[in-house]
Design goal:
With 169 residues, this protein is an all-alpha fold. It contains one helix and no strands. The chain is rod-shaped. Keywords: Coiled coil.
Length: 169
């Protein structure tokens, strides 16, 4: 091979290498751009991650508050259960009182019935006594009238007896 051929081959190889280097430079430049984009993405991801961490922290705080609220609700429920238990006991006492009142009312009703019977008897007796009084008044008037007539008759008889005594005597 001749020197010129060798140089031509070397030149062609150099040219190919330059083209490859130029391509590699382009690739490196593209990689740098890609790396810059990746760095931007990483930076953005770091910011997003920071936001996520803040969100997680906020959620933890919220969860802590929710736990406190749940605990408070449990306490409230215990209080409500105690109140309901107390109300049940009160209702049991009220039921006992109502039962006692019902028994008392039965006694009162019986006494009212007895009083009604006695009152009816008093009305009947009053009616009888009123009728008896009216009859007695009528009889008294009749007796008074008869008594007046008898007095008049007795008075006339006394006059006649005096007349007769004067005539006889």
């Amino acid at each position: 091979m001749t020197n010129e051929e060798f140089q031509a081959i070397v030149l062609s190889e150099l040219k190919a290498l330059r083209e490859d280097i130029s391509g590699v430079k382009g690739d490196v430049s593209g990689l740098k751009e890609d790396m810059s984009g990746v760095k931007g993405n990483v930076s953005s991801l770091k910011e997003d991650m920071s936001g996520v961490k803040e969100d997680v922290s906020g959620l933890r705080e919220d969860m802590s508050g929710v736990k406190g609220n749940v605990s408070s609700l449990k306490d409230d429920m215990l209080g409500v259960k105690e109140d309901v238990s107390g109300l049940r006991e009160d209702m049991s006492g009220v039921k006992g009182n109502v039962s006692s009142l019902k028994e008392d009312m039965l006694g009162v009703k019986e006494k009212v019935d007895e009083i009604d019977k006695k009152l009816n008897a008093v009305y009947e007796q009053t009616a009888f006594l009123t009728e008896f009084k009216e009859e007695s008044i009528k009889n008294n008037k009749r007796i008074e009238q008869e008594n007046r007539r008898l007095k008049e008759i007795v008075g006339r008889h006394e006059l006649e007896i005096q007349d007769l005594k004067q005539k006889i005597g």
